[in-house]
Amino acid sequence: MPSTKQYGTAGPANEAIGGIPTIHYLDFASRGRGQVVRLLWEDAGIAYTDVRYSFEEYPDYKKTTIAEKNPTTNVPVVEINGKILTQSYAMLRHFARQLGEYDGTTEEEKYWADAMCDIAVDWRTQFVNAFFHPQKEETYPQHQQTERVRFLTAFETHLTRHELSLPGPYVLGTTVTYADLVLYQVLHDENLTQEGMAGLQDYPRLKQLADAVERRPNVKAFRESERYLG
Predict the structure, then answer these.
(1) What is the largest CA-CA distance in the chain?
(2) Interval 176-188: pLDDT, tens
């Protein structure tokens, strides 16, 4: 049976998004596309219900429970106030608009947050393809030496050259956005934020961003709690 746990106390942020959301996702520690949705909720102070499916039981639930909620049978799936939300990055933008934060204020800022998110999504696709490949022992080391370096270099360049990112520490300077959380989660899932961010020593601007995300009060409390699974 999936595990179901409720976290937090409903407050103004829950009112802004229309209730207490329930997320359906794999029991994949604190990793993956579902985790970045949780990360935004935690940072925003949103209470939520967390339903986790083990990898062993998920194929059966994918054909039934998940298929009933999402025709593509992909997770995460979020239920809130009688509505079903799918596609994790569309969810993040949706919640950002409802909250009135996390995606900038001007059209230029919104574009830049979206663009940086899309680059991170491209990176995650390459990472997942290599990490879950049947020949992972060959494909993932190759990814680490090629595509990962390409994306790390691209992000470091964007963050140190684009006028909106220059002030730091976030994509939009001092204002955190959903794009920062998406990028942080990819860095985490690639094991670049562990061990004192050793994997980011050659990318100081990316390290600054990841440090800033982890130092956010609600994110820090989350990472130090039993809710955070590493």
Answers:
(1) 49
(2) 999 999 999 999 9
